[in-house]
Amino acid sequence: MKINMSVFAVKLSHFQLFVGFFILLSFNHFALASGESLLLTGKISSAKKQVVTAPRGRTWNIQIQWLEEEGKVVEAGDLIAVFDGSLIQSQLEANEEILETEQLELTQIKMELEQGYLEAKGALTIAQMRVEQAKIEANVPESQVSQLDKGKFELTLQRTEMELIKANENLKLAESALQTGVEKQRIQIRLIEDEIRYQSSQMEKMSVTANFKGPISYAIHPWTGEKMAAGMNARASWNIIDVQATDDFQIESWVHEIDIEHVKANKNVELVLDAYPSKKFKGKLTFLSTQTEKKVQWSNSVYYPVIFQFVDVPDLTLLPGMSVRIDIPQPAIDER
Questions:
Q1: Bridge-partner residues for 284, per DSSP?
Q2: pLDDT, position 331
Q3: Residue 152 region by backbone torsions, left for phi larger than 0, else alpha for psi between -120 and 50, else beta
Q4: Strand 302-310 versus strand 276-288 pairing type
Q5: How far lies 102's CA from each of 26, 94, 106, 116, 155, in Å?
């Protein structure tokens, strides 16, 4: 006995998805209790997928300014999403102006401190000359000068030697001030340059281009269940849209936590595409996540992401988003 269930369409409303899921869940529990098949719904996707997420800005939220039309097949390099970067742009322009001011300030500081250093160096040279002159006068024999002049020459020598020590210290201070003042200003400039580089990289993330050819699909708002759209506010890392290649197809689905053991028990499945209901294809389980996710649009329970692949890729026109019914046979009760 097989359970006849129609496959969910790709563009089901939130209410239809909510009701349809619980109908399927009820049938599954009844069927499993009778040893029948476990039925899942999934959708065609490509293993080559570009997922566009909301970039991180200066605030919690960022506005979606523009999105490419859903379903449109874009080429690699086409613009597919634009986020509001006006705040970052204004901060970037302000920092660029500040950078110019700080660079001029560096030139001025360097000139002033270099002037102070040159003056201190000149004062040291003069002090050294005065000491040499005072030494010559102090070394005049006592027989050639009076006792009073001899005492004055010795005092002058002591004074000029003290002035030399002070001039030498002033030169060291001027040299240190030059190095410290210039380096301090350069650090300030580097901080602003780092901020500009970060903001420039953020601005680049505000405009997203496609990595390869494929159709556009909109993500679902995690709180409201609505599809993402231009004008909405999104939080950083939220999925906004994705681009899937038109090859390397797989089937994505979700398994309720109650049914996960039945999926593990049989990895061979039967696949029926909603677009080709009279054809059946063999499939196999290729990925079963070890972590669960909540789907608030469906229930308060948790679900395991799973991926199936065709055993033989059908010779049909497949597109990402097509809905698929996944039939997982279960052993009879007396076989368990």
A1: 268, 309
A2: 66
A3: alpha
A4: antiparallel
A5: 69, 12, 6, 21, 49
Question: For residues 215 and 243, is the Cβ–Cβ distance under 8 A?
Answer: yes
Q: Which two tokens stand for residue 165?
A: 């020590």
Task: Name 288's Cβ contacts closer than 8 Å, sequence gap at least 6.
Answer: 255, 260, 263, 264, 304, 306
Distance (Å, rounded) from C-alpha 6 to C-alpha 12? Answer: 13
> Looking at 274-335, which runs of residues are DSSP E strands?
276-288, 293-294, 302-310, 323-328
Beta bridge partners of 283: 269, 310
Starting at the edge strand that comes first in sequence, how are the strands of the sheet with 214-218 ordered?
A: 49-53, 239-244, 214-218, 73-74
Sign of CA dihedral 215, 221, 226, 231: negative
Is residue 46 helix, strand or coil? Answer: strand
pLDDT of the residue at 142: 78
For residue 14, which of 193, 221, 264 has the smallest C-alpha distance? Answer: 221
The token pair that represents 43 in the structure block? 């959708």
Question: What pTM was estimated for this model as a whole?
Answer: 0.63
Q: Is pLDDT larger for residue 148 or for residue 170?
A: 170
Alpha carbon 238 to chain centroid, angstroms: 12
Q: Give the three-class secondary structure for 58.
A: coil
Token output for 98: 């500040």
Residue 244 burial (C-beta neighbours within 10 Å; 0-12, 13-18, 19+): buried
Please provide the average confidence, as pLDDT, over all residues in the chain. Answer: 85
For the sheet with 207-209, list strands across it. Answer: 207-209, 79-83, 61-67, 233-235
Tell me the two tokens of residue 32: 């499993």
Can you name the residues that pair with 252 across neighbouring β-strands?
Answer: 43, 307
